[in-house]
Amino acid sequence: MGLKHGKYAYIERKDGWYIKVRLLNIRLKKKGKKEKYSFDINDPTKYIIVGTKTKKPPYKAQIIKEDDLPEEVQKIIYSI
Description:
By secondary structure, the protein is mainly beta.
């Protein structure tokens, strides 16, 4: 599965699983840039859980830590 120009990212859960999410109206910066995120990550309406759960994400994937997310999104990623 492709990551489509920074529109998709993986959320790293504390139990070792990664969840694929679609980011609405957001483009992630490449790994070499200084800023980690170029958008407001506290808006829970910007995340759509695709439903893919994996132990090993693609090597080019942007990884978002679970602790950086709002409470609503943290609850949803554990329902998968």
